[in-house]
Amino acid sequence: MSDLLAARSQMAVSLAFHIIFAIIGIAMPVLMVIAERRWHQTKDPVYLDLARRWARGTAILFAVGAVSGTVLSFELGLLWPRFMELAGPLIGMPFSLEGFAFFTEAIFLGVYLYGWDKVSPRAHLTAGILVAVSGAASGIFVVIANAWMNTPTGYAVIDGIMQAVDPIAALKTPAAFPQALHMTLAAYAATGLGVAGIHALLLLRNRTNMFNRAALTIGLLVGVPAAILQPVSGDIAARYVARRQPAKLAAMEAVYTTQAGAPLKVIPGVNIPYALSLLAFHDPKAVVKGLDSIPADEHPNVGVVHLSFNVMVALGTYMAIVSLWAGWLVLRKRDLAARPRLLWALVIAAPCGFIATEAGWMVTEVGRQPWIVYGVIRTADAVTPMPGLIVPFTTITLLYGVLGGVVGWILYRQIIRSPRT
Amino acid sequence: MLVLSHTLAAIILAALTAYVLLGGADFGGGMWDLLADGPRKTRQRELIARAIGPVWEANHVWLILALVLLFTCFPRAFARIAIALHIPLTLMLIGIVLRGSAFVFQIYGGGGGRVFAIASLVTPVLLGMCVGAIAAANIGQAGGIPGGGFHALYVATWLTSFSLAVGLFTLTCFAFLAAVYLTLETPDPELQGDFRLRAIGAGVWVLMMAALALAVAPHRNVVDHRIAALVGIAALITFLALWKRRYGVARIAAAAEVALILWGWGVAQFPYMLPPDLTIAGAAAPPRTLNLALLALILGAIVLFPSLYYLFKVFKTRAI
Ligand code: HDD
Ligand code: HEM
Ligand code: HEM
Hints:
heterodimer, A: mainly alpha, two-stranded antiparallel sheet, 6% strand, B: mainly alpha, Formate dehydrogenase/DMSO reductase fold, two-stranded antiparallel ribbon, binds CIS-heme D hydroxychlorin gamma-spirolactone, binds protoporphyrin IX containing FE
């Protein structure tokens, strides 16, 4: 394994690990706040129990999210010092703002988790809301930094070297809006349907359990709207990619030759005529650039990007359909717990959002290769000169493997202990 | 430009100071967890967990803030540090990951107390070693020397007796802070007494480790001499206050003692960020970035300080 490959793999492992905890950290506070609010309104102790149990699980996930995020902040420099040296003055802005969002999040999380008996119910709920808001904000800021890597702005190239010029322009990078929207929705869709799926499984065993019914409803409340909107926001993202990152689009759709009226390749052998041009440019005759129009040393890995993209879209479609189904039944005031087929569909949807999120990041990141900053700095030029990077890569991978196992085991114990009445 | 970059460097040192005074004490708490002993062993551990629980994540963000400001405002310095100190920083990160996760696992009944305590012990040493490498002026040209072997470039910079001494010194400082603060965390006079004795013991260790570090220092100017005198005075006040059981005074004096050491280091190497060759101004980002970072800091502070005050008011009523 070359040092560059080891560095890329270490970055990929660290990010893929962190993102799971990050999206739960963004969305779980919303679910807890809804449960707590219902408790205030109905005085039904089931909701209080729910909020408290969710808070226990979230405390663990948050801590792991915080430490794995710390690792990432250092790794940006440890693995890509040349990138940070040149880009730091530009993407430092969103990272600094993110720092304050982390502060707010960590402070009010402390109040929320440990303050049940120390602050008034109103203050407690407010703390939960602040955690939810600052969690979403920190996700958005870091995604803006990533968006800048995809569509860099605010710089000048002097003597072949990138120079920071305008951090505000960097903050307004064009990919920021579609990526931040798509990512935030992903967090709510994945976590909401994830929670709904777990409780659907428990309801299949015992249909009348009030605790699981309440949890299912709240999970759906957060997950269903997000999952329905997700294909729409994905379409917005795809059109930005089509205009700004033709190589990535070509890899996503495995387009080898430039063509007008390009078809969409759904699975090998099945093509929908004109559909790709229509989706990417909202014009059936539009020209889609193929990989043949891009120099060979600037091609991303088509196999990985194309497969990941199809996985994301397939899972996203499934999640949207299940969400429409569940939403329709809720609107007609049907008892979801009496519909085992829907419950099973929700159980299957539970991991989908997390897998789609990982796949989506593969598309974004692998699709940007060989650039670390699209069109400006190559990944190979940014990597640390230190040799032997396979050692930290292996170490971090083992560490996260063990950590992930322990977290899974602790959460599993908590879930099977959920109340039986 | 000059003044602006110095202001931001001072803010970064201030964030690092906050991390040491607050986050450092959380690490120190882990050390006392390891060393808990005597008839009140379990109660000591409970007190430590209660004291750390609600605040450690917020305290930890000070490190993130210092780091983020460093790469925003002083990207050249950040890149050099990240290259030359790759190994100790990676080890420190592993310590941070194990400490944080083992702490919550333990609270939520998943075990891991040993891991928590041992990671609390190792991480501060590594942090101190990194600081020691910078103070010893070893990170200056490192990363830039072509042709140097692996050992010369990536190991010899930080694996020195001086760095090691600074690492151990950092550990004793954290333990000392934790013990002093813990006297204020409980109304129980027995527990207070336990930590009073520990604080005095750790305070003596701090002085011994400081003497050791100075003895093996590669040059005489690692800490500004005038500030070192103030450190001595603060240490004296801390011992007196602990002796007389004036814990509130002891806490302020102990925090001042440790903060002054950090600032003594900063003043001593001024105007260099990475001695012997990289100055603060030379490492700085373009002025627009610095201006905006300062603006972001001011706006952030308006949100941050009231929130922090609230957090400590809720959980540290005895201490505030
Ligand atoms: C719940 C998770 C989830 C679901 C259901 C979807 N996505 Fe997605 N997608 C993500 C989670 C995600 C992500 C992980 O959040 C990414 C990675 C980077 C980003 O901004 O969002 C992403 C990236 C991403 C990109 C690349 C953006 C870029 O590189 O700048 C495109 C074009 C799409 N998505 C398109 C879609 C479409 C057409 C979907 C139709 C169903 C879809 N996504 C469902
Ligand atoms: C290079 C990429 C990233 C870096 C450097 C990074 C850095 C960090 C850091 C330092 C923390 C700890 C804050 C604390 O101590 O409380 C953290 C936590 C967090 N990060 Fe990341 N992060 C990255 C990617 C992401 C992404 C893509 C998202 C989401 C969209 C995200 C969302 C969060 C959230 C919500 C938290 C709060 C803790 C939690 O919920 O578990 N991060 N991150
Ligand atoms: C948390 C969700 C994310 C995941 C799962 C993810 C995934 C990946 C993957 C798979 C790679 C390796 C790509 C390759 O080399 O083929 C990578 C590289 C990288 N990512 Fe991300 N990424 C995420 C978010 C971010 C964010 C928010 C940032 C920055 C702010 C970021 C910065 C980087 C950098 C600097 C590299 C290394 C250089 C490169 O390969 O281009 N990533 N990431």
